[in-house]
Write a structure and sequence with these properties.
Elements: H1 2-11, H2 13-33, E1 46-52, H3 58-73, E2 79-87, E3 90-97, H4 103-117, E4 128-129, E5 138-145, H5 151-166, E6 172-178, E7 183-189, H6 191-197, H7 201-211, E8 215-222, E9 225-231, H8 238-242, E10 245-249, E11 252-255, H9 256-259, E12 260-266, E13 282-288, H10 294-309, E14 317-323, H11 324-354, H12 357-364, H13 366-380, H14 387-428
Antiparallel strand pairs: 1-3, 1-4, 2-3, 5-13, 5-14, 6-13, 7-12, 8-9, 10-11
Length: 429
């Protein structure tokens, strides 16, 4: 079989050269299209289901949320394992799929099952899917440098302006905010006053919710003019909350300010984000989508940040806390440099030892063609250019050269035997 292939290749030299040139050209194209990262992504193919129920203990979360979800998510096709974790106020369910399963197909299957499982959860509790990223998807961290703004204002700027802008970058799955204070209206109720006016805490909650709403009406026509009737009731300041009527006491309306105080404060925090021991900062974590090119995503994020910078208040700027592109560029540059050195050394050694330029050329030309073809296979199997894959290619150069030398030596040996046989036959004649 091998002999027939060799004979076929020798009889069709032009076709073999054209095929090699085509593979080399396609390999160069594959090099440009191959995702670039510093480290290989060895994380599991998983979908995360996150459910929040603040104020509940881990045991309650386990019994009423985690266990029903885990039980009803069983049976999804191509699932290897399902893991659940319950903590104070939060539930996490990790659905581990087979490695060859498409991420978005898996997320669709989980969503279909959640539509049924949600009916078993407490009222008002909605499970959500985590971002379509992986364990190595945190590719870029940044902070806001705003010395003239407090932490609450910085967090509001991050949540309502910067985060939304960066989420539009192609390849970004999520921009997670950290640090600062999430602003909220806080109603501090006096239990003694509640008892005096004979109101419950639930009465206060329901009235505040009901008064934070717009009400639509019908169209009213008068004098050939049409007017839209609606009730504007959204809360815009803490004074609006204080003036909400809860009920009446002996014919006198009782407002929120009569049973407590309203203040602007921050949400409960479980930790702080400190940078280099210089104090708290506010920023975000850019999470890359699974299978994306980390280097291209980071470059696009930086370009978008330059556009966002123009809309920031005076004195506010970005500071980069972590940038994987530096590691990617350094790692890839080192591997490329060593790869080029290895190719040059191998070429010189082959030329010196064989001392026959046609034999050396037949061996040396295999190196770039084989490397280019390897990138075609990397793209076919969904592997990125990283330290591991490029190091493997560098180590394989020795094997490529060994094979070429063996084939050349075998060809010369056969030619020598053929020449000796031909010369002996001539002498006999």
């Amino acid at each position: 079989m091998v002999q027939k292939i060799i004979e076929l290749a020798l009889k069709n030299k032009l076709a073999v050269l054209l095929i090699a040139a085509g593979l080399f050209a396609y390999g160069i194209y594959s090099v440009k299209q191959n995702p670039v990262d510093a480290i290989p992504d060895l994380s599991e193919n998983q979908v995360i289901v996150f459910t929040e129920w603040m104020g509940r203990s881990p045991q309650v979360i386990e019994d009423q949320i985690t266990y029903p979800l885990v039980s009803n998510l069983q049976g999804i096709p191509k699932v290897k394992n399902i893991r659940g974790a319950s903590m104070f106020g939060m539930s996490f369910v990790y659905i581990i799929f087979d490695d060859n399963v498409d991420t978005y197909w898996a997320r669709t299957r989980v969503l279909e099952r959640l539509n049924y499982a949600q009916r078993l959860l407490p009222q008002g509790i909605t499970p959500t899917l985590g971002p379509d990223g992986t364990g190595v998807g945190h590719v870029f961290w940044y902070t806001l440098h705003a010395p003239k703004m407090d932490l609450g204002e910085q967090r509001a700027l991050q949540d309502w302006y910067v985060r939304f802008a960066l989420q539009t970058v192609p390849g970004v799955a999520e921009v997670a905010s950290f640090g600062g204070f999430e602003k909220q209206y806080q109603l501090v109720v006096d239990p003694v006053k509640l008892q005096f006016y004979n109101f419950s805490l639930m009465d206060v909650m329901n009235k505040v919710k009901a008064n934070n709403n717009d009400v639509g009406g019908r169209k009213f026509e008068m004098s050939d003019m049409a007017y839209i009737v609606r009730g504007v009731g959204y809360i815009k300041s803490k004074d609006d909350i204080e003036n909400i009527a809860i009920g009446n006491y002996n014919g006198i309306p009782v407002r929120v300010k009569d049973i407590g105080t309203v203040q602007m404060g921050g949400d409960l925090r479980l930790g702080i984000f400190d940078q280099n021991g210089e104090g708290e900062v506010v920023g975000g974590i850019v999470v890359m989508r699974s299978g994306e090119n980390a280097d291209k995503v980071i470059t696009a994020v930086k370009k978008k940040m330059d556009e966002v910078q123009k809309g920031l208040p005076e004195g506010v700027s970005f500071k980069i806390a972590y940038d994987r592109s530096n590691l990617i560029e350094a790692a890839i540059a080192t591997i490329k440099e060593k790869l080029l050195e290895e190719i040059i050394i191998v070429c010189v050694i082959v030329i010196l030892f064989l001392f026959h330029w046609r034999s050396a050329l037949s061996i040396i030309i295999q190196i770039p063609i084989t490397i280019a073809i390897s990138f075609i296979l990397l793209n076919a199997f969904g592997l990125s250019s990283n330290i591991m894959s490029l190091t493997g290619i560098a180590l394989a150069i020795g094997v490529i050269v060994d094979n070429g030398i063996i084939m050349s030596e075998n060809a010369y040996r056969n030619l020598s035997e053929w020449q000796q046989k031909a010369s002996s036959e001539q002498q006999q004649q």
